[in-house]
Amino acid sequence: MKVVAFAVGSDGDVLPFIALGKEMVKRGHEFEIVTFTCFQERIEKNGLRYGKLHGDPEEMMKKMLSEREDGPGVLKAIRELLHKYPELYADFERACRWAELIMYMQFGGLAYHFAEKLKKPCIRTFALPYDPTKLYSPLFPFIKRNSLRCKYSYVISDIMMNWATLDTVNDWRKHLGLSKWNLFRFYKKMYGKRILTLYQYSNVLFPRDPAWKEHIYVTGEWNIKLKENDKISEELKQFVENGKAPLYIGFGSIVSKQMEELQNKLLVALEKTGQRAVFVSAWTKFNTKKQNPNIYYTDYVPFTWLFKRVSAVIHHGGAGTLSLAVRAGKPNLILAFGGDQYFRGKQAQAIGVAPEPVFLPNTLITAELLERKLLELGKEEYSVAAICAAEKMAKEDGCKTACDLIEAYFKKEGK
């Protein structure tokens, strides 16, 4: 089987497909990931095909998080990015014509239209719930949980996403000879059949809604098994091992002008609480000139190695970071830059592995607030809950479950 997966985003979008692709290749299938060129080397090193996608993930994150915190601004940013890169049509078309089965997550949903034209089976997959449920609302996390408003919020988010992509979608559908799309057509069915939907997260973190139909599965996470000693400096090993377990502090693919201010206030809070920390830079670099014997700065370290050795994990609420932290049995403190991150923070709080998250756009951040949060994070109840959650997550095998479902689906729907 030839499988293509579209990952339009950052590491959190690409890495799960690498994990899934490796398992599919082991089973004798071909697997191509279509994404930005900055991920090409990593994809090919893992024995998978790479497909080029025009665009820049850092530019995308800057537009969607750094400059436009409000919902309408994010949607406008999506429209601008689609208009800026007309080459995307050819990128999608080439990959879909090669494939026998098409997978996509979130912004990669544009592949749906090529699957419809080419009459090829496709699979939706997400790192957050996108099917209506009363339990919670990822895109509207301030709505009261367990309410009808939660359920209806999914319809609103579908309409909003259609608004953002409508011009591009209808241009593409015209090229493909397909009927016009509109605000009230959604991506959940094709030719009257429900599309197989795989949620690539743990049922421990986000319990499946029993009201969902049988075509919707929560598989467990799609994680890459990394060699733990890769790229770990002796200096970092000594820092972690010689003293009280430090905190992890890092914000992944977030690009923010306020990062240095946040760093300064965290440093003050850490000094007041007497805690050590490892600051891990990613897309926005921490200021490493602020030297302190209780602080260690690094650009990259495998989380599977580091998280076992820290006392807690302070982060932005990224899907991968949260799941790896809980899988390591560590409590979390989430400082969210966007709504979906705040949603994960609320969910972490709901299952007991984190205190109340902080939504940075609406909060006056002070060293005193962060000090209180650090002290609360040290409560035993969060560690106990995280260890319990980790034991349950260890029993899941997301890649195996997903591959079994994909193979069964293709056997039924493929030509």
Automatic annotation (TrEMBL):
Domain Erythromycin biosynthesis protein CIII-like C-terminal: 288-390
Domain Glycosyltransferase family 28 N-terminal: 4-135
InterPro entries reported for this sequence: EryCIII-like_C, Glycosyltransferase_28, GlycoTrans_28_N, UDP_glucos_trans
Domain of life of the source: Bacteria
GO biological process, one term: vancomycin biosynthetic process
GO MF annotation list: hexosyltransferase activity; UDP-glycosyltransferase activity
Pfam families the UniProt entry points to: EryCIII-like_C (PF06722), Glyco_transf_28 (PF03033)
Protein name: Uncharacterized protein
